[in-house]
Amino acid sequence: MDKKIYLIGLNHRSAGVDIREKFALTNLTEFETGLLGACRLREVMALSTCNRVEILAIADEASCRGVDIPETVRRHWAACCQGPMEDLRQHTYVHEGLDAVTHLFCVAASLDSMVMGEPQILGQLKNAYRKAVEHGTAKVITNRLLHKAFSVAKRVRTETAIASSAVSISYAAVELAKKIFGELTGKSAMLIGAGEMAELAATHL
Q1: Catalytic residue status for 106
Q2: How far apart are CA 158 and CA 170, in angstroms?
Q3: Can you give the pTM of this predicted structure?
Q4: Could you report how far apart the first and last alpha carbons of the chain are, in Å?
Q5: What is the pLDDT of residues 6-24, one digit of tens each?
């Protein structure tokens, strides 16, 4: 194979909330196009959610020989977020080749999520992929990988019981509140934040 596949990331298992917030990517397109210019890569796609930031990088084996691609990605990532490189080195994981593909499939199927089976990650991954395609940073190999990942995720959801009940971090939080406080009808709750998880929590209250 003349292409090398890397996946560099951090998630709820490898880093606390403070680190995940510090290295969240707010402008994926700017990050992806900047990384292509700064590194010997053919394709880049980044995913940034409240629980993970992951960068899928495709490089030509010949042109990246002798280049530490994960370290170059981390350097660009740290510069974009104005955070210390040492934090990224300490909290990021690196998957290469088949391991990177396997990890991507697990993420798409929500097998690597904080709440296994939650459906939000697949939508977030599809949105990140769509933006990368629109801006030309995702090409042939990324296209094949992501479409296969979407197919794997669909099979997992239809052929297993992983999605047999309403599952999300927000749903789990509301259910925990019910166990602690009893019936929530007539009670007031304050939601901090205006993101997708807060909106979902509001629908479950």
Answers
A1: no
A2: 23
A3: 0.82
A4: 51
A5: 999 999 999 999 999 999 9
Cα gap 170→200, rounded to integer Å: 6
For residue range 136-174, what is the model confidence (pLDDT) as tens digits?
999 999 999 999 999 999 999 999 888 665 566 666 666
Please pick, among 50, 64, 80, 106, the residue that the annotation labels catalytic. 50
**Which of 32, 7, 8 lies closest to 88 in space, CA to CA?**
8
Looking at the chain, how many residues does it have? 205
Q: Which residue has the tokens 């099979």?
A: 155
Say how far apart CA 109 and CA 158 lie, in whole Å: 11
Name the nearest CA neighbour of 8 among 23, 30, 18.
23
- Measured CA to CA, the distance from residue 4 to residue 16 in angstroms comes to 30
122 touches 153 (CB < 8 A): yes
> What is the pLDDT, as a whole number, of residue 55?
98
Place of tokens 């794997």: 152
